[in-house]
Amino acid sequence: MLWFKSAVDFLFKPLAIILVAGSITAACGFSPVYRQDAQRTIRQNMALIVIAPIGGQRGLQLRNRLTEKISSTGVVDVPEFRLSVSLASSTEAVLIQLDTTATRQNLRMSASFTLTNLASGATVFTGKSVSVSSYNVVDSEFATIVAEDNAADRVAREIGEEIFDLLVVYFDRSES
Fold first, then answer.
1. In terms of residue numbers, what domain contains 65?
2. Alpha carbon of 68 to those of 84, 110, 112, 133: distances in Å?
């Protein structure tokens, strides 16, 4: 009898939890972002964005990342929106030895962006994204430069992802 009770608890408690969680999620108004019932889907809106050039090597990395995420073909035939991004970066010594040499640095990048409707010239969405990545400073100058470039690539990837996510949320809310 004890075995039967533990088997019932083992089978039905997870099932009950799943049913309760499913009913709560269904009642909260959740709707998928990439739904197909809208007049124009989010993917179609994202494909209408042209990305303005971003200055510097790190800006080029960020622009390439955004182009990968926003437009799979990379070319917009008739753009409706322009995404302008201004990028600022700084480095900060984190670990400092007794002889005042830094052995670890943080690379901090912040990007402010605006989405402009090309037909009206009005700014429809603005936002900001900040990311920090660390790298080691070693005796080899080449290794330090490679580590800093790697950190810049990681930061550009994170900022690109965040800008993409913010744009998806904007288009989802503007369609609703």
1. 39-175
2. 16, 20, 19, 22
